[in-house]
Write a structure and sequence with these properties.
Chain lengths: 208, 115
């Protein structure tokens, strides 16, 4: 009888223990699943973090490059504006220069010049300019009236009249001697023009 | 007393290692899972902060999702702009000299031929 009770008791205990153990192992499985899920989550998030870091670095770099390009572009625009202003100023100066030349040409007409020595060596005494244009200057002098080609005028008169000279060069930004027509370059310019016209000093005289 | 001790002892011997081996395993696994969950949460927070930082940069137009080719394109553009700066600076210097020369020549002309 005792043995039976003991066996039944033991069986009951074994059933209870087995059930408890089974439930316990089920709990372990669940915990293991949770851990695997958490591990999978962490792997996914770590991957996302890594990818986002990469994007962020690239976006920061791109943003910095865009900002730098904008800054340089703005600076370039400022320089372009300054160049435009300078070009406008140059155009204004050219107009003023042309006006000054025109005024100097008008003022010389009718003025008595005691002696005018042409490049041909001919001297005109008590000369007055009656009329002038780009090619011919008409002098009234003590010996009559003489038409003188512009190329044969003395250097100071040529410098004053500046025929064929475009203030500022007309080419925009050229500062070459020929374009500005500076005094030092004037003789060269005239020599070139003479040479290109096939003229020499003595034969160029038409009024003598 | 005739106890059936042999089979019971055998059963006990069979169950004991299982019980001992699984003793505390659940708690260990739960702790580990909690730790990992915490780490995942931290990484999530980091991810959100990175996304916020990225959003703070703003929309970059065609460079919003920059590739290597975009970077090369931007670097080339900056190089071109720098070259343009050098060229424009030279042009500006040239223009300044040009204006100065013309002004000087005009002053000379006026001094020589106009009162």
């Amino acid at each position: 009888m005792d043995a039976k009770i003991f066996v039944y008791g033991f069986c009951l205990f074994a059933i209870i223990a087995g059930t408890g153990f089974w439930r316990y192992t089920m709990g372990i499985d669940e915990a293991e699943k949770e851990m695997l899920l958490a591990r999978s989550q962490i792997t996914t998030v770590e991957g996302s973090v890594k990818e986002t870091k990469g994007w962020l670095t690239a976006r920061k770099e791109a943003s910095a490059l865009i900002a730098a390009a904008n800054v340089i572009e703005a600076d370039n625009q400022i320089i372009k504006d300054a160049i435009k202003q300078l070009q406008d100023k140059r155009t204004d100066l050219s107009k003023v220069f042309a006006s000054a030349i025109s005024r100097a040409r008008n003022e010389i007409q009718g003025v008595l010049l005691p002696e005018v020595t042409l490049t041909t060596g001919v001297r005109l005494r008590n000369a007055k300019i009656q009329s002038l244009d780009e090619n011919i200057t008409v002098f009234q002098h003590s010996e009559g009236v003489t038409k003188v080609p512009t190329a044969n005028l003395p250097a100071d008169l040529q410098d004053r009249l500046r025929y064929g000279f475009t203030p500022g060069g007309g080419g925009g930004s050229s500062t070459g001697p020929a374009s500005t027509g500076s005094s030092s370059s004037l003789s060269t310019s005239f020599s070139d023009r003479l040479a290109s016209a096939g003229m020499n000093a003595p034969s160029a005289d038409t009024g003598f | 007393m005739n106890l059936p001790s042999k089979p019971f002892a055998l059963c006990a011997l069979l169950l004991l290692p299982g019980v001992l081996s699984s003793c505390g395993k659940k708690a260990q696994l739960e702790a580990e899972a909690a730790q990992m969950q915490e780490a995942a949460n931290e990484q999530n927070a980091l991810l959100k902060s990175l996304q916020a930082e990225s959003a703070a940069i703003g929309h970059l137009g065609q460079y919003n999702y920059p590739q290597q080719s975009h970077m090369d394109q931007l670097r080339t553009r900056i190089k071109q702009l720098r070259e343009e700066t050098v060229s424009l600076t030279a042009e500006k210097e040239h223009a300044i000299k040009d204006v100065e020369l013309l002004q000087h020549e005009l002053d000379d002309y006026r001094a020589r031929h106009l009162q």
